[in-house]
Amino acid sequence: MIKRTFALLLLFLCPVIVSSTKVCPANCTCGIPDERDIYRARTQEEVVNCAGKGFHEIPYWDIPCDALVIDFSQNNLKKLTRSSFRGLQQLEYIYLRQNQIDYMETATFAGCP
Using CA of residue 19, residue 39, residue 49, residue 73, what is the dihedral sign? Predict the structure, then answer.
């Protein structure tokens, strides 16, 4: 009985523990590169750098919700949708240069400050 209760407790606590850790999209770096703060961020955790990684869409589900800066320059983005920046309510700077963006949905930046 004790083992079963412990197993059930772990099942309920694991999502809380996992969701409290910061996530960085695959192949990206989170934090300020080197000593140079080209992004004008206040802390390292606020920067998500995915420049030149071949993304076709912005993986909003992997970006920390408290990110202030995201850099998706030099990727293969062709469109921005209403969900591209979903949940990124602290976002202040978005770098999208050197992509092939030719379509942007209405309200793409609706959730951003």
Answer: positive
Which helix H or strand E contains 16, and what residues bound it?
Answer: helix 2-19
DSSP 83: T
Whose tokens are 């772990």? That residue is 10
Q: Of 51, 45, 38, which Cα lies nearest the Cα of 66?
A: 45
| Beta carbons within 10 angstroms of residue 62's beta carbon | 14
41: tokens are 């961020």
Give the model confidence (pLDDT) of 29-77 as tens digits: 887 665 555 666 566 668 899 999 999 999 999 999 889 889 999 999 9
Contacts of 107 (CB under 8 A, 6+ apart): 82
Tell me the pTM: 0.73
